[in-house]
Specification:
By secondary structure, this protein is α+β, with helices and mostly antiparallel strands. It is built from three helices and two strands; from the N terminus they run E-E-H-H-H. It has a two-stranded antiparallel sheet.
């Protein structure tokens, strides 16, 4: 994918950033839309959530989120030896 534009942003005390207004024009970055934050060894990427299919979405979900659906003793017993 080719680089289209580059801007800077300042990180606040709370770890927040503001996406520059002209970059909000990119499809999927509208107010109220969810984004995915991908952390690599050398960079962090922000992507609109709609770019991910169901299999990719599961890969970016945190263990804490996934554990909400997997906290029963039956599940732990079934998977303990894997």
């Amino acid at each position: 994918m080719a680089l289209i534009e580059m801007k800077t942003a300042k990180i606040t005390e709370k770890g927040q950033i503001a996406i520059p207004k002209d970059m909000l024009a990119f499809e999927g970055f509208e107010e109220g839309k969810k984004i995915v934050i991908l952390a690599f060894e050398d960079r962090v990427e922000l992507r609109p959530l709609k770019q991910f299919n169901d299999r990719m979405f599961a890969a970016v979900m945190s263990e804490k989120i996934l554990s909400k659906d997997w906290l029963s003793k039956e599940d732990e017993k079934a998977w303990k030896d894997l």
